[in-house]
Write a structure and sequence with these properties.
Elements lengths: L4 H4 L7 H4 L35 H14 L3 E5 L2 H9 L7 E5 L4 H11 L5 E5 L14 E7 L11 H10 L3 E5 L4 H4 L9 E5 L13 E5 L2 H14 L5 H11 L2 H19 L5 E5 L9 H7 L6 E6 L2 H10 L4 E2 L9 E3 L11 H7 L5 E5 L5 H13 L1
Parallel strand pairs: 2-3, 2-4, 4-5, 5-6, 10-11
Antiparallel strand pairs: 1-7, 6-7, 8-9, 9-12, 11-12
Helix pairs in contact: 3-9, 4-5, 12-14
Length: about 375
């Protein structure tokens, strides 16, 4: 049966016998066990030790893999653990092309750890620059977010995938902002998708997780060895929390997107707001590309206000919207990238990307949109 993505969020395609293995439990069980016993030498239940694999984690990986349309998926302890594990695919002297506008934690990992380990990086605006001109004989991968965090730049996944394939390079896409509900990079030609599962997949700001989804069984086999060796696999209870969150992914994504469009349009009418960046606005540079490669525009909005003082005043006066890092939960969160998510990005790069002390990032939740606008209104006037 060819299920819709809404149904895949709730039902994994399995045989009736497989579904009844756990006594018919509708909610997949938490196998809170570090190790598993064997009936005899050479006989195994299929599980040995939870660092290698656990039934709850395996089930979650199968669900995420089905949503992204991959060959295999890996659930890790955080989004950064997922990116860190990916970097273990590369060797000293390898070169990777990356977008200059990435989540600050990813940039920090590349600059502070991956570079130390001998991997070389070239930063560029991959939504506008000539990507092919950035290749060298040592280029092994392209890494980007689309939309980017926090400036919402949109790259053409299909076009870049063709360039990567031509040069036999891996193409890695961070799909956190849209989730597999709105966008499936593997189906557009990417080789690997990475997620901070903490965000939209889990959706409730109550657990950390990360995911890698791949198309190639050869890459999957290498990652199975690496995840077992480094020990970064997601714990059983956290796996269950993400499974629970994914069941409402479709509903949450649709409601949050509806709210985001309404708020983005309202922000455009505010005198203290100088710029609104939301891919769902027709004037956004990536609007047409998003319509081509995604099923929605998401619920992340970045906007600039008239001064740093105004930005800080808004952060100090919001009440319903929470001043907090992270994104993608049921609660609306507002973030100050210059001191929070992108504090470790060099100032020169931040400013070139357009991130200033007047920039705010809003993750729109599923509250009533009018209530959110009312809260922002009083914060703007405070």
């Amino acid at each position: 049966m060819d299920l819709s993505i809404e149904t895949k969020c709730i039902h994994l395609e399995e045989s009736k016998e497989k579904k009844l293995q756990n006594f018919g439990a509708v909610s997949f069980p938490i196998y809170q066990s570090a190790t598993f016993s064997h009936a005899a030498i050479g006989e195994s239940t299929g599980f040995d030790y939870s660092r290698s694999q656990n039934p709850t984690r395996e089930h979650l990986e199968q669900v995420v893999c089905a949503l992204e349309g991959g060959e295999a998926a890996f659930a890790l302890s955080s989004g950064m653990a997922a990116v860190g594990l990916l970097m273990e695919l590369f060797e000293i002297g390898d070169h990777i092309i990356i977008d200059s506008d990435l989540y600050g934690g990813t940039s920090r990992l590349f600059d502070a750890i991956s570079a130390k380990n001998g991997i070389e990086f070239t930063r560029a605006n991959l939504s506008e620059d000539d990507v092919e001109a950035l290749f060298t004989p040592k280029t092994k991968a392209i890494y980007l977010e689309t939309p980017t965090n926090p400036m919402m730049r949109v790259s053409d996944i299909e076009a870049i995938a063709k360039i990567a394939k031509k040069h036999r390079a891996l193409f890695i896409v961070d799909n956190t902002f849209l989730s597999p509900y709105f966008q499936n990079p593997l189906k557009l030609g990417a080789n690997i998708v990475v997620h901070s599962g903490t965000k939209f997949l889990a959706g409730h700001n109550d657990t950390l997780s990360g995911f890698i989804v791949v198309k190639s069984e050869m890459v999957a086999e290498r990652l199975r060895y690496l995840i077992k060796t480094t020990g970064a696999g997601l714990a059983p209870f956290d796996s269950w929390l993400v499974l629970r969150g994914i069941k409402t992914l479709a509903l949450r994504m649709e409601k949050a997107q509806e709210n985001a469009l309404k708020i983005a349009q309202w922000l455009k009418t505010q005198k203290c707001v100088k710029k609104v960046i939301y891919p769902g606005l027709a004037e956004h540079k990536g609007y047409e590309i998003m319509k081509k490669q995604a099923r929605g525009f998401g619920s992340m909005i970045t906007f600039d206000v008239e001064s740093a003082e105004k930005a800080k005043s808004i952060l100090n006066n919001v009440q319903l919207v929470l001043f907090a890092e992270s994104l993608g939960g049921v609660e609306s969160l507002i973030t100050y990238p210059v001191t929070q998510t992108h504090a470790d990005v060099p100032e020169e790069i931040r400013l070139k990307n357009g991130i200033s002390d007047c920039t705010l990032r809003l993750s729109v939740g599923i509250e009533n949109a009018d209530d959110l606008i009312a809260d922002l209104t009083q914060a703007f006037l405070a």
